[in-house]
Amino acid sequence: MDRPFYPEKIISIIPELLPYLGVTFEIMLGTIITGLFLGFFLARGRLSKKKVPRKIADFIVNAFRCTPAIVMLFVIFYGLPNLFWAIFKIDINEWSKGFYVITALGLLFSASASEIMRSSYLAVPAGQREAALTSGLSESQAFTRIMLPQAFLVSLPNLGNSVIALLKEGSLAFTIGLVDVMGKGNLFISMNFGAFAAETYIALAIIYWVLTIVIEQIFKFAEKKFSKGRKAVSK
């Protein structure tokens, strides 16, 4: 039997979903921090002149990039407790589901982050670093004062796209029982015995659409702001 469609219900569902955006943002922020932290070391490994660290980093990045988000999430959720118990004799089954989501998505995001960092660093002319060292700056000073600001600006468009992709991947968190905005939507459908499913998913689509636009505008603003400083220096 076909269920009737009530467009007006979409407007009433959205306010019920919005309070759970906090969980979505927490997962996203935790994943970004984790991914950037791990991605930095992977990028260093891929930029290393030594063969072994470079090969290890390349293997890890390729492995993560080839793993679907849903697969990584289930591997971490079901496999990590067994690993912790086998090695440390620690039971983590009762840990927050957010921990597993952040760990899984953070690993995947680290692969994208490392490639963004590596390509952005290589995009800065090597002469910039050499000129900084010649002027008396140390290696660390040349990196933080000269290379990093330029590489950061180059990375913004790709980083913005990766964050948007991460937002959508985070919607998979409900598959292990985490109640974020997507999880609440599915609970709402279940509590209504499958009624208003189309209306709920349209409401979710609107929320994700608005969030995507906001993130996109934030990165465009950041890129424009930092580009002004760069142009001023170049003049």
Explained architecture:
This protein has helices at residues 7-17, 21-47, 51-65, 69-88, 97-123, 126-134, 139-169, 181-191, 197-234. It is mostly helical and 235 residues long. The mean pLDDT is 91.
Strand content: under 5%
Helix/strand structural class: mainly alpha
In whole angstroms, the N-to-C terminal distance is 69 Å
Q: Low-confidence parts lasting 5 or more residues at pLDDT below 50?
A: none
H and E string: HHHHHHHHH
- Please count the beta strands (DSSP E, at least 2 residues each): 0
Note the total helix count: 9
State Rg: 22 Å
What is the residue-mean pLDDT, rounded to a whole number? 91
Q: How would a crystallographer describe the biggest sheet?
A: none
Query: How does the overall form come out from the CA principal axes?
Result: flat
**Percentage of residues assigned to helices:** over 70%
Summary?
This protein is an all-alpha fold and 235 residues long.
What is the fold's blueprint, element by element?
Blueprint: H1 7-17, H2 21-47, H3 51-65, H4 69-88, H5 97-123, H6 126-134, H7 139-169, H8 181-191, H9 197-234
Which short descriptors sum up this protein?
235 residues; mainly alpha; 9 helices; flat
